[in-house]
Amino acid sequence: MLVVLAFIILFHITSIALLFIATIDNAWWVGNDFYVDIWKNCLNTTASAVCTEVGSDSPYFQAIQTVQATMILATILCCVGLLSFVLQLFRLKQGERFVFTAIIQMLSCLCVMIAAAIYTAMHDKFHPNLKLADGTFGYSFILAWIAFAFTLINSIMYLILRKRK
């Protein structure tokens, strides 16, 4: 049983790391001469990269703020879920389920899905000054979808998991 618990904790920590990388790193949409994320746009010049923050002058600023907020909330919920799991591990009686932790993970999963879906639908409107047809989704965007799958699987594992000797 200790191996299963260690695997679940490792899986949960991996989910947290994926969410942190996807939220912070600047690679949601990349091209030859630019890379953008939910925080800023960066244009590659010959000497360096010139980055500008996503500004409130965009008509879709509320939508990008929604993506930012839900990714931050997903990361926080995933961290709280790990803390909840560790606390419940020592406090629950034998055979009780980790339902609270599963609910927190499911909410984290939902937040990641909302953020990635909004970005998928509206990424060309978030960065109107760039030639986005020349780019592709970057690894941070892909990590966000992988984090969605990990948090979903993690929440299902918590619903199934029972504390045994």
List the helices and strands and how they pair.
Elements: H1 2-24, E1 29-30, E2 34-36, E3 40-44, E4 49-53, H2 61-91, H3 99-126, E5 136-137, H4 139-160
Antiparallel strand pairs: 1-2, 1-5, 2-3, 3-4
Helix pairs in contact: 1-2, 1-4, 2-3, 3-4
Q: Can you put this structure into words, describing what you see?
A:
- This protein is of the alpha+beta class and 165 residues long.
- It has a single domain (2-160), classed as Butyryl-CoA Dehydrogenase, subunit A, domain 3, CATH 1.20.140.
- Helix content is 63%, strand content 10%.
- It contains four helices and five strands.
- It has a five-stranded antiparallel sheet with strand order 4-3-2-1-5.
- α1 runs antiparallel to α4 and α2 (61-91) packs antiparallel against α3.
- The longest helix has 31 residues, at 61-91.
- It starts with a helix and ends in a 5-residue tail after the last helix.
- The model has no long low-confidence stretch (mean pLDDT 84).
- It holds the Pfam family PMP22_Claudin.
